[in-house]
Design a protein that fits this description.
This protein has 349 residues and is an alpha/beta fold. The protein folds into 2 domains: 178 residues, Quinone Oxidoreductase, Chain A, domain 1 (Alpha-Beta Complex), CATH 3.90.180.10; 131 residues, Rossmann fold. Helices cover 28% and strands 27% of the residues. Strand 1 and strand 2 form a beta hairpin. The protein is globular. The mean pLDDT is 96. The structure holds zinc ion (2 copies). The site of one zinc ion (ZN) has 8 residues, from helix 2. This is Alcohol dehydrogenase catalytic domain-containing protein.
Length: 349
């Protein structure tokens, strides 16, 4: 008799249900993780509502921000220890395409993503495929930590990748972050930790502004952002502007907030097919550098796990709710309704 487990499965666009799947046993080269927490992000919402379909496979178990513990090892797996806390780097890349060879595995032309095309962490157990295990996608925690903190390794790794792409932050620089969701708050903590002079966070929800203020940010609502930036920079503009909400009008607005020679990161994904009007001369005359940031490499996940292990990031101000897997609908509604900030699911409950 095969044992079954509940799993949050995508049947098709906009069609998600809690289904029974067999409890996995690891085949050769595979590793089974016991999932202890999986946090939900905006991309999950777009998959669940049917807005996002590319790279997503019907029948897949969702969930890509995964904190687990190594439960069992298939034949031939070496270097991993049963019982260790671990997360997964979700980008399963080919290793041989030009992007991979150039150290940009997250832009691999043949990659599959755990929680999108491959089964993810919204189930009590996750079987990590052999090709991911052999490429080192399972990343053990350096020290034991709360599962809700380890689950932030995936979003934090994306933030670290974006941080690398925009050239980081220099001590004393002024940083503007637009959006105070989990991603904006992770950018806030990172920039404060890196010695930014001022971090100005723009967010419409008062409770999120309060969280950012407690992290050391100057906060404002969207209506006063340009005044606040002008006031804090003597009208010069910000050295770095990070867009952490995918709204097309922010493309132009972010350029206007930057200082001459400044950097602008369009970190958030914009809705599919979005277009924006920008004044290209702002980039030209102000000599701005615009970068993107999408996904992360295994190296970024390693750094994220190390930072989380040292408690450089405080998860308690970001992960506000934990639901059992059977309450997944409430969890999704909480994300949609901006209740709290980051919502976690503990599939053991
Ligand atoms: Zn995510
Ligand atoms: Zn590749």
């Amino acid at each position: 008799m095969t044992h079954t487990m509940p799993a949050l499965v995508l049947n098709g666009p906009g069609d998600v249900q809690l289904a029974e799947k067999p409890v996995p046993t690891p085949g050769p080269g595979e590793v089974v993780l016991a999932v202890e927490a999986t946090t939900i992000c905006g991309t999950d919402l777009r998959i669940i509502s049917g807005e996002k379909t590319t790279g997503v496979r019907p029948g897949v178990t969702l969930g890509h921000e995964i904190a687990g513990r190594i439960a069992s090892l298939g034949d031939g797996v070496e270097g991993l220890t049963v019982g260790r806390q671990a997360t997964v780097s979700i980008v399963v890349s080919c290793g041989i395409c030009r992007a991979c060879l150039a150290g940009q595995e997250h832009l691999c032309s043949h990659c599959e993503l755990i929680g999108y095309g491959l089964d993810g962490g919204l189930a009590p157990w996750l079987c990590v495929p052999a090709r991911a295990v052999s490429r080192g996608n399972i990343i053990p925690a350096t020290t034991e930590m709360p599962a809700t903190r380890l689950a932030l390794a995936e979003p934090l790794s994306c933030v670290l990748n974006g941080h690398r792409r925009h050239g980081g932050v220099n001590p004393g620089e002024t940083v503007v972050i637009i959006g105070g969701g989990a991603i904006g708050l992770l950018h806030t903590q990172l920039n404060v930790a890196c010695g930014a002079g001022k971090v100005i966070l723009c967010e419409k929800h008062a409770d999120r502004r309060e969280r950012a203020a407690a992290m050391g940010a100057i906060t404002t609502g969207p209506d006063h952002l340009s005044e606040v930036v002008a006031e804090h920079t003597d009208g010069y503009g910000a050295d770095l502007v990070i867009v952490a909400i995918g709204r097309h009008e922010l493309a132009e607005e972010s350029l206007d907030l930057a200082a001459p020679g400044g950097r602008v990161s369009w970190f958030a994904g914009f809705p599919k097919g979005s277009t924006a009007t920008i004044t290209p001369n702002t980039v030209h005359y102000q000599e701005l550098t615009v970068s993107g940031g999408s996904n992360a490499r295994r190296a970024d996940v390693h750094r994220a796990v190390d930072m989380l292990g040292r408690a450089d990031i405080d998860e308690t101000s970001i992960v506000t709710h934990v639901f059992g897997l059977s309450h997944w609908k409430e969890a999704v509604e909480a994300v949609r309704g901006h209740a709290g900030v980051k919502i976690a699911i503990d599939p053991r409950r």
